[in-house]
Amino acid sequence: MSSTPSTATSTGPSPGIPLHEARLGVLGGSGLYAMEGLEDGREVVVDTPYGQPSDALRLGRIGELEVVFLARHGRHHSYTPSEVPYRANLWALRSLGVRWILSVSAVGSLQEQVRPLDMLVPDQFIDRTHQRPLSFFGNGVVAHVTAADPFCPTLSRLLADVGESLMPAGRQLHRGGTYLCMEGPAFSTRAESELYRSWGCGVIGMTNHTEARLAREAEIAYATLAMVTDYDCWHQDHAAVSVEMVIDNLRANADLAQQIIRVAAERIAAQRPASGSHRALRHALMTPKDQVPLETRRRVDLFTAPYWGALAEHD
User: Fold this and answer.
1) Short-list 109, 116, 227, 117, CA closest to 178
2) Distant-in-sequence, close-in-space partners of 217: CB < 8 Å, separation ≥ 6
3) How far apart (Å, rounded) are the C-alpha atoms in residues 72 and 81?
4) Model-level pTM?
5) How many CB atoms lie within 10 A of CB 216?
6) How many CA atoms lie within 13 A of 193 on its CB side?
């Protein structure tokens, strides 16, 4: 990601962009700060109503599919999990026509059978964060999206199929499981780790729940490739989690993660999978549009335009 950023408009393509023209977003977490192999790559700076995204967005192609990559912590890992500008990141991706997101994230394992260097595609969340905005709405407009299945089942199945086919001998991809999202940035205490294990959680991380909530409101299908780096701190026969352990295992997983994302992108290009997430606001908008303050309407127009009509430029 060394090219000079260019400037993009803040609105990008029409919010009603059809799936055959849509882009794939890739969110890179700890250890994954660039997307290899993007053809015709360029950087774009996007201004959003929610501030600046974590970094310039990297646009390019994988085969026939246009891809937008963003390092959620910044390319130099400058943002803690609490500081990541989640709303700006998701708004920026949606403004550039992204309708699918593959999130690549480091996690700790909370179960014996989910071993370091395995991968897991979760299907549920428990939220233990407390310092983050979790919605684009408010300030005069209310929307209640459904979150019973917070990950897109169709996209998650595609990602798991690809990952399973590419896992080396001795390592496993796990289908399904609950992702416990903690605030961070410190790792868990042993008591917390044992509590989350007793709840049946599979892995623990610090970012994905927040992204998934906002992606649903933005009508973007979202799935996670969780890269297991350690056994958190509950496992008495393994060393307690450390930054060095996490980074070493992330490096071991990085090449495989890049390969999985590339093949998944090729399948998304071929299938252009539709998702219930792409219609999440259809019955969720509760406030009559003529009762929404104009400034609030401007902020959410990217998402509400398909239902309320786009605001005119002079509004």
Assistant:
1) 109
2) 135, 136, 137, 143, 145, 280, 281, 284, 303
3) 9
4) 0.92
5) 25
6) 20
Q: How far is CA 10 from the centre of its chain?
A: 20
Assess whether pLDDT exceeds 80 at residue 12: no
Q: Which has the closest alpha carbon to 91: 311, 273, 300?
A: 300
Place of tokens 């450390």: 242
Output the DSSP codes for 31-62: T--S-TT-EEEEEEE--BTTB--SSPEEEEEE
Packing angle of the helix pair 86-95, 208-217 (nearest 10 deg): 40
Q: Which domains does the chain show, CATH number per domain?
A: 20-308 (3.40.50.1580)
Q: Give the integer Cα–Cα distance in Å for 44 and 283.
A: 33
pLDDT digits (tens, 9 = 90+) for 89-105: 999 999 999 999 999 99
Task: Tell me if 183 sits within 8 A of 129, measured CB to CB.
Answer: yes
- Tell me whether residue 313 is exposed, middle or buried, using C-beta atoms within 10 angstroms of its C-beta: 0 to 12, 13 to 18, 19 or more: exposed
Which class for 236: exposed (0-12), middle (13-18), buried (19 or more C-beta within 10 A)? exposed
Give bridge partners of residue 26 from the DSSP assignment: 69, 102
Could you give the residue numbers annotated as active site?
A: 230, 232
The tokens describing 112, both together, are 């014996």
Three-state SS for 20?
A: helix
